[in-house]
Amino acid sequence: MPNLKDQVVLITGANRGQGKGIAKHFASLGAKVAVGARSFEDAEALSAEIGKNQSLPVQLDVTNEADWTAAVQSIIEAYNKIDVLINNAGIFIKKPLLDTSVEDFQQLINVNQLGVFMGIKAVAPYMEKQQKGSIVNNVSISAFAPINDAAAYAASKAAVSNLSKSAAIELGPKGIRVNSIHPGVIQTNMVSGSNLNINEADAIPLRRLGQANDIAQVAAFLASDESAYCNGAEIVVDGGLTLGTDV
Fold it and tell me: Which residues form a coiled coil (predicted)?
């Protein structure tokens, strides 16, 4: 099991879904978790659930550069370092291409793509001073296997996939590793609230939908020294969905 004792970790979109699962799992492994959420009240609620001695709530709208600056500064003031960034916050819009508005596309870019870019820029200078850091981008299998009627979402995720690889090349010499997770269908409120059919797992070779903890465990591996020689890696966590199916 990865050891994250006293590692300082910032998780975006940590108040629900995969982010909440990651935050709780990291705390169980000994990490000091900075809970990032657009609503400070939501961040405070999860921080209280985890324990104030092991967490720090931070206001963080990932589309707002000032929020990034303030959040990272709060973490540095509280812990004097930042070891890990989990870029988890994201939105999903499922619409046919011709029904997707420019506003829809821009919103996906702002949250899913620009938010990750700003996060990397915000933490990397501190990690460079430490000569060590791990950035984990929670992307999607849509980056390379788009689902129907979600072209704009897939485009935003494909951009993050290549951004991650480019960042891994540039930041690797500074001691900063950048890796990606590509979740398949994970049972969260975001998926439940979409018009995806999540009742059928027959197309998945493992015959079940993913859970938040499936992602959290892979994130912990990439955050820890157990993955010390992983840089620019992409780990697919989809139960085999993108391999094909026998039905």
Answer: none
Q: How far is CA 180 from CA 58, 87, 237, in A?
A: 23, 9, 11
Map out the domains of the chain as residue ranges.
8-243
Residues with a catalytic annotation lie at 153
The correct answer on CATH 1.25.40.10 for the domain covering 8-243 is: no
Return the residue matching tokens 């996906």: 108
State phi, psi for 42 to the nearest 5 degrees: -65, -40
What pTM was computed for the model? Answer: 0.94
Which residue, 198, 197, 228, is CA-closest to 211?
198
10-residue averages of pLDDT along the chain (247 residues): 94 97 98 98 97 96 98 98 98 97 98 98 98 98 95 98 98 98 87 54 88 97 98 97 74
Which SS3 state, helix, strand or coil, does residue 134 take? strand
